[in-house]
Structures are given as C-alpha cells and as structure tokens.
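Design request, tokens follow.
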C-alpha cells in the first residue's frame, strides 16, 4: 500500500525569496524568525561600513533600488582580487546559505561572491549584468559546516575595469524540512530506492524497480527546486534498474532525486558532501 507523498522546503526569510511556478518539484513557504537572516546591509550610514575592507562612505551614491533606502555602494576598477570584502566569523551550526542582493551594472558588470574562508574563491557567485536596478538571488545553496567562517566579496570587472552599484546584500539561512515518500517495500511494486552511498562525493548510484514497462524520467533537483540534470528519459522494461550520477562540478548540499513512471512519482533526498 502506497504511503502519501509530501515534501517541502521552508526558506526562513523576512521577505519572499522566489516566485515558483506550479511545475516546480519543490514548494516554498515564507517563514518567520530572527535567525533566518545571517547578514544584511543597506549602505545607509557610516555604521554600515563597519567590518568591511575597502569600503568607505565616499563610495555611497544617492541612487538605490525601490525600497532600498536613499543610498547604495559604488564599486569600480579592474582587479582579480576583491575590491571590497567582509569576513563573517565561524558559524555555530551547520548551515545552508543563500545569497541575495540588488545590483546595477555601470560598465561590463561585476559580481557579489560568498564562500567559505578555507575554500575561497569557491562558493556562491552573483553576476551583476543589468544596467537597471535588478534583484538577484544565488541559484544554488552554500553548505557551511559548524565552525567555518565566511568571506563576502565585491568585484567590479576583472582584467578589464568596470563599475557597479550594489545594495541590500543579504545572506539567508535555509532550514530544510523534508518529508519524503517511502513506499512499503512490496515485491513487484514501483519503488525508488535510497541512493548509495549517501552522503556521497562525487558519485552515487540510484536504483529503482518497475513492475511493468514504462516511460521513465529520472531527474535531479537542487534545494531551490531547480532541475540540475536528467539521468534518464526513455521507456524501460520491467525489473530492477540502476543509474549513476556523477556530481563532479556541483556544489555541496542537498539534492532531490525524482523518479516518474507513468503517473507514479517518488522522490528521495540525497546529500553531496565535498
């Protein structure tokens, strides 16, 4: 007898993070709680420069996005090292993080980057591309283990000089609440098995059983509900099948494996740890 499938991701945030279509695998709900926002700045006063390296009030501009206060931060130049940076002390708990900001491209663009202090410059990267104020959200999450520090950095251009304005930089903590379908194991029934190994790095094997021939799709989604790859999309014979996911190049974090065969769907949670 099949148990009811229900799974969700709750993003703890003081504002709505994303507007997702009904075709997305995961659903989001707005949460409440002071711990949801790890870091926030809006560059409104000298106080907002505290802790920053390479930032002063002389870089403030009276140009800001809607609801962004009266000022923003202007960054210009060309360099492969950060023009401005902010170090965040070691976190007390394992955390999954999302980076958000508003940005305005005044040249060939720039970027806002968040990474682990020990693995810099790997991490979340937001590229400021639009010439009008635009809200940006990182497409992935960053896993920060307990006791690890973070580095937030701003770049304008690279080898070629550029300029940008940024405002309302936020780092959010994602709380994952997952309720995943688990079928009662019964011989001859449609079933997606838990991947192995799990956690994994960088390869894992996903097995599933089909009681009859079906058109099968096997997809991987990240914690934001974005599809990252399709492992299978074809008609398969009845029996036990196995697919291997090679996750080289993907960031650490929670992923979801979704198997659909006809009108039957099952999902499993997987954890990639570097």
């Amino acid at each position: 007898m099949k148990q009811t499938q229900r799974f969700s991701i709750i993003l703890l945030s003081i504002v709505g993070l994303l507007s997702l279509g009904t075709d997305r695998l995961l659903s989001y709900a707005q949460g409440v709680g002071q711990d949801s926002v790890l870091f926030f700045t809006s560059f409104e006063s000298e106080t907002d420069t505290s802790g920053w390296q390479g930032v002063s009030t002389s870089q403030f501009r009276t140009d800001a996005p809607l609801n962004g206060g009266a000022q923003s931060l202007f960054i210009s130049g060309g360099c492969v090292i950060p023009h401005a940076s902010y170090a965040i002390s070691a976190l007390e708990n394992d955390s999954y993080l999302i980076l958000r900001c508003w940005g305005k491209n005044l040249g060939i663009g720039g970027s806002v980057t968040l990474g682990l202090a020990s693995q810099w410059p790997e991490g979340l990267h937001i590229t400021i591309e639009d010439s009008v104020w635009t809200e940006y959200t990182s497409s992935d999450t960053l896993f920060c283990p307990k006791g690890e520090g973070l580095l937030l950095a701003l770049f304008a251009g690279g080898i070629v000089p550029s300029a940008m304005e940024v405002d309302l930089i936020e780092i959010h903590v994602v709380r994952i609440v997952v309720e995943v379908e688990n079928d009662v194991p019964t011989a001859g029934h449609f079933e997606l098995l838990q991947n192995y190994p799990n956690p994994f790095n960088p390869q894992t094997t996903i097995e599933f059983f089909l009681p009859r021939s079906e058109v099968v799709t096997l997809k991987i989604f990240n914690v934001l509900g974005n599809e990252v790859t399709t492992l299978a999309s074809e008609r398969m014979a009845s029996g036990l099948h196995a697919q291997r996911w090679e996750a080289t190049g993907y960031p650490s974090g929670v992923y979801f494996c979704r198997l659909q065969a006809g009108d039957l769907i099952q999902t499993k949670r997987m954890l990639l740890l570097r």
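Comment from the thread starter after seeing the answer: thanks! Residues 191-272 form a domain with the Immunoglobulin-like fold (CATH 2.60.40.1930).
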